[in-house]
């Protein structure tokens, strides 16, 4: 056999190598898919500060799923492809309902807006102008400081309450304002009674402690104290507005969830991320409620702040 013949035979044998050898089936894909499904479904079992990080990133853990499905399809790894659908199903069960269109903004008795103004805001006037454009009945702010923008809110609303770095303005009388001690060393939460035309509504405005990777104790302590205050509150109708530095999927928020509901989940569409404002990846800003009915909820891009505002409409009843 000539050298040319031997080369041709070798090439022919290479062309006949089974597809299963050049594109191995997908046991690795299946293992990765099962691990991802277990992490998404069992994220609360992850301990410590890393568990909080996983909670916060939970909606984004669905991103690898299409890659696993595509890899399995490319390799014709049908078992791997079937297993790769498991984390997809788990993700849809957890978050799919959030993308069902919420109630459209229709009849409501009360519109509320909450905004972290951002201490380094270089254009607070533009931020406040956007908030005023909502025609909200109540506007809550965090990282508040005195300045021209505060005067604009004072001029637009007949009633206001300020404690430390949180404040509330309203179209209705705001009575019995008092500090809620979050254990942070200065006032970052207040409780006030809004005398709406349909009866009193207790309103909390809060800015929980900061939460950084590996350092969530300050945040956890402040949320615990806030939860204690809400739990002990005898009011039938409660709103909690503010930056809780706690994602909707964060286990720490569960301390408030049994008592209060999230307006975005009840009446919004989508996950309602608010931070950072340019490309939000999580939702530390919340409107929580009980004793009223959420009619609509959304987020607002506001100039100047590193947070988007959150807005919700409610039927208060009588």
TrEMBL record:
The chain crosses the membrane at residues 57-74, 81-100. Keywords: Endonuclease, Hydrolase, Membrane, Nuclease, Transmembrane, Transmembrane helix. The keyword Hydrolase applies. InterPro entries: Endo/exonu/phosph_ase_sf, Endo/exonuclease/phosphatase. Residues 114-307 form the Endonuclease/exonuclease/phosphatase domain. Pfam families: Exo_endo_phos (PF03372). GO terms for molecular function: endonuclease activity. This is Endonuclease/exonuclease/phosphatase family protein. It comes from Actinomadura gamaensis.
